[in-house]
Amino acid sequence: MLFVVGLGLGDEKDITLKGLEAVRRCDKVYMEAYTSLLSFGLSSDGLSTLEKLYGKPITVADREMVEEKADVFLSEARESDVAFLVVGDPFGATTHTDLVVRAKKAGIDVRVVHNASVMNAVGACGLQLYRYGETISIPFFTETWRPYSFYEKIKKNRDLGLHTLCLLDIRVKEPSLESLCRGKKQYEPPRFMSINTAIEQLLEVEEKSGESVYGEDTECVGLARLGSEDQMIVAGPMKQLLNVDFGAPLHCLVIAGETHPLEQEMLEFYRLKEGSDHKENGTA
Ligand SMILES: C[S@@+](CC[C@H](N)C(=O)[O-])C[C@H]1O[C@@H](n2cnc3c(N)ncnc32)[C@H](O)[C@@H]1O
């Protein structure tokens, strides 16, 4: 049996009872760590906290292992119980859906244990699930690679008055993945896109495209470390969020479309009050 277990967003305590039972009965435990990271995964204990809780070692699965060498743990799952841990929810990233499809096609029994996910940003920011359009990803721009494809998707959403959830790029150098999870020193630090960088890039694309899809005054909500004790949620126009220090990763951003009066009331809770400490916003 292959158990695909969501770990939630905050810390080691966010695994569900069902998830914990599944992990404890498994002979082998893998953890995916390139599409998302638990915030405590960046601390000095990192993975060993999870290993103590589960009472067994964890193998960190990098992108190559999940996407190209999955046959190894899929054949293990044919013979015994194998857990595949995913930060957030198992279906919050395409790559895990693909894994489940491959396992089922290979005739392996699969059980999915759901958990909180970045998908919860949709409601946590004060806006309503049924008023969202397509979710987009914003990649880090380089000197020579500045893809603007997400602009058209935001345009479609905004033309319909819908909100847009923007997921922000994570770049982890594969050789350093294990050491990152175990909180060891590594030579090339991973890069996590901040809300500030995302807005800078969004405004650059708007300036180049010039279709007035959004602008500096467009209402947005920035969410950092959702699900953690120190989560931070701030609502305001792009030009204001550009200067807010959201702190440690992970970050995501919602571009608001047309808002209902109830949504507007919720957004008020997340606005910066004059003289307030940014860090107080939206704490759990
Ligand atoms: C592929 S998605 C996450 C998939 C994960 N399996 C899940 O269900 O949450 C990764 C992106 O979601 C956003 N994200 C993930 N966790 C977050 C958190 N706790 N707070 C804010 N944004 C988060 C970041 O933009 C990150 O780059």
TrEMBL record:
Enzyme class at the top of the EC tree: transferase
Residue intervals passing through the bilayer: none
GO molecular function term, any single one: diphthine methyl ester synthase activity
UniProt entry keywords in alphabetical sequence: Methyltransferase, S-adenosyl-L-methionine, Transferase
Ranges for domain Tetrapyrrole methylase: 1-241
Keyword Methyltransferase applies: yes
Entry's EC annotation: 2.1.1.314
Pfam families attached to this UniProt entry: TP_methylase
Gene3D superfamilies linked to this entry: Cobalt-precorrin-4 Transmethylase, Domain 1, Methyltransferase, Cobalt-precorrin-4 Transmethylase, Domain 2
Reaction(s) this enzyme catalyzes, per UniProt: 2-[(3S)-amino-3-carboxypropyl]-L-histidyl-[translation elongation factor 2] + 4 S-adenosyl-L-methionine = diphthine methyl ester-[translation elongation factor 2] + 4 S-adenosyl-L-homocysteine + 3 H(+)
Binding site for S-adenosyl-L-methionine: L9, D89, G92, S117, V118, L168, L226, H251
Top-level lineage group: Eukaryota
Pathway: Protein modification; peptidyl-diphthamide biosynthesis
PANTHER family, alphabetized: DIPHTHINE METHYL ESTER SYNTHASE, DIPHTHINE SYNTHASE
HAMAP family (UniProt xref): Diphthine_synth (MF_01084)
Family note: Belongs to the diphthine synthase family.
Protein name: diphthine methyl ester synthase
Gene: LOC116212849
